[in-house]
Amino acid sequence: MAKIADDTNSDQVIAEDTTPVLVDFWAPWCKPCQALAPILEEIEAANGQEFGLVKVNVDASESIAARFNVRGVPTLVLLAKDKPAERKVGNVSRATIEDWISASLA
Questions:
Q1: pLDDT truncated to tens, each residue of the chain (106 aa)?
Q2: Among 24, 25, 41, 54, which is most buried by a count of CB atoms within 10 Å?
């Protein structure tokens, strides 16, 4: 199940995961974000040991969105230890997300 991060707990939520973390920056008014949410939940459920899913509402957590230089939603940021953060912006397909995660974690 996805964890919720905000400006007060983001460092702790992200750091407590021992696996790579997929951060979903979203907004409640964003239709593409709403379409992407169940896809991300399904991907996490199928691959839960490989990475954790963290959701950040950009309207409620402006500081963390700014820290990750989020300019639009949805934005997905993959954080893996010892690797630079990778990102996807916009509504992308399930296959694209799964391929991206697999390639990034290989």
A1: 788 988 898 888 877 777 889 999 999 999 999 999 999 999 999 987 888 999 999 999 999 999 999 999 999 999 987 677 899 999 999 999 999 998 888 7
A2: 25
CA dist., res. 67 & res. 18, Å (int): 21
Q: Where are the alpha helices (H) located in the chain, listed in sequence order? A: 10-15, 31-46, 62-67, 94-105
Any idea which residues carry the catalytic annotation? 30, 33
The pTM score is 0.92
Residue 69 is classified by DSSP as: T
Measured between alpha carbons, how far is 11 from 64 in angstroms, rounded to an integer? 9
